[in-house]
Amino acid sequence: MGDGSPRRIAALVRQDVRLLVRDPAPLVVRTVMPLLIMGFMQPLFRAALRAGDVEDATGAEQGVPGMAVMFLFFLVTVMGFAMFREHGWNTWDRLRAGPARPFELVAGRILVPLAVAVVQLAVVFAAGGALFGLRVRGSWTALVVVGVPLALCVVMAGMALVALCRTIAQLSVFANLLALVFAGLGGALTPLSALPQWARPLAPGVPSYWAMRGFSTVILDGGGVRAVLLPAGVLCAFAAGLTAVTLLFFRVHHRKLSWS
Predict the structure, then answer these.
(1) pLDDT in tens, 130-182
(2) What is the pLDDT of residue 78?
(3) Which of 173, 190, 213, 196 is nearest to 80 (CA)?
(4) Are 187 and 203 in contact (CB under 8 A)?
(5) Are the C-beta atoms of residues 223 and 139 closer than 8 Å to each other?
(6) What angle do CA 64, 149, 159 make, to 5 degrees?
(7) Which parts of the chain have pLDDT scores under 50?
């Protein structure tokens, strides 16, 4: 990487930060909505956990990580819109014609969403503790060990969809579908032990399953960093696979359409 590469990436990051500060509404909504839904669903989560022999459960043990994971995957849509916006504004061609190389263009578009994803997770977990009495029996460091690769996985899922989709309508459909399927199969909507029989063999095939498994290990079982190395490692593998898809299919000269 040349001497100018960090400066070019930093310039792209500063542009994304300015746009985020100018319109923070999507970030605020994705952070507030899981907490609002948690307020309604906590009794259901409490009943489900107590039926699974967690006798002192408050419901926050399932609801907070579940809603955090579910709404984190909706970041895929927002990230995709940001990439397609460059084409709609006709600024992508100018970026491509500049000195920035394809790697720098991709890296510059990843860093801000990654930071946003980590902050979103941190705020939801902190607010879950303050508002809904979430008790973490294990290590908070272990939650970070799971949360960071999860955030990376979400960001790379967004980049992979940008690489594969030609129109913003395609990206919106696939991103929302993935978010809902991942929430259902991954145990974000119900404890993993309560998944339907048909879903249990499929669940390990989605990253949200490993995120919820890691979070549950820490929150309910009191696990530390060593206990979540497997879920964190699998999430890293998902992120690597999505990165490979992005590198294989992303072409800077491909024209993206912000309409159907």
Answers:
(1) 999 899 999 999 999 999 999 999 999 998 988 888 888 888 888 899 999 99
(2) 79
(3) 173
(4) yes
(5) yes
(6) 105
(7) 1-2, 259-260
Which of these, 19, 37, 144, 18, lies nearest to 82 by C-alpha position? 19
> Rounded to a whole number, what is the largest CA-CA distance in the chain?
61
Sign, Cα dihedral of 163, 165, 167, 173: negative
Q: Considering only CA atoms, which of 69, 76, 80 is closest in space to residue 184?
A: 69
Enumerate residues 6+ apart whose C-beta is below 8 A from 75.
30, 113, 116, 117, 120, 154, 155, 158
* Inter-CA distances, 190 with 45, 78, 112, 121, 221, Å: 7, 25, 31, 19, 17
The Cα–Cα gap between 169 and 21 comes to 25
Structural domain boundaries in the chain: 4-249
Half-sphere exposure of 132 (CA within 13 A, CB side): 29
Q: Which helix (H) or strand (E) holds 186?
A: helix 168-186
Per-residue confidence (pLDDT) for residue 154, from 0 to 100: 94
> Are 54 and 36 spatial neighbours (Cβ–Cβ below 8 Å)?
no
Structure token pair of residue 228: 């979540």
Q: Write down the residue that tokens 């985020």 correspond to.
A: 20
